[in-house]
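The instructor's notes for this session suggest beginning with a concrete chain rather than abstract definitions. Hand out the sequence below and ask the class to guess, before any prediction is shown, which regions might be ordered.
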Amino acid sequence: MYPVHVPLTVQWGDMDAYQHVNNVVYFRWFETARMALFRAIDFTSGTGTGPILHSTTCRYRAPVYFPDDVVTAARVIDVGDDRFTVEMAVYSAREQGIAAVGSAVIVAYDYVNKTKATLPTPVRAAIAALR
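After discussion, reveal the predicted structure:
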């Protein structure tokens, strides 16, 4: 279902004053999964065009506490001419379930000319192969 998985260990410092993992940490975990996905589809390949984050969301389903191990996962759920949408999930080993789900819209960006770009054909093909 999710082709990219990154195991992570919950750190004591991830917790907040309410004694559960702070909401900001989930976005870091999602970022980790997205970066692993970008490597899997080679979307950092020196062509001058790369990913830029357009928007991101998170829906919290269950709190996560220290100690715990989580797996953050990612998959592409939609592809457009100049963007794609990544769905991400955090699975808690302690809770034996999904703790959060989120999405991110990623736009192809020409870092040389500082403008939106068309999604490169090799990246589009790598996304299709990963799905």
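Then share the key points. The mean pLDDT is 96. The domain at 4-130 is CATH 3.10.129.10 (Thiol Ester Dehydrase; Chain A).
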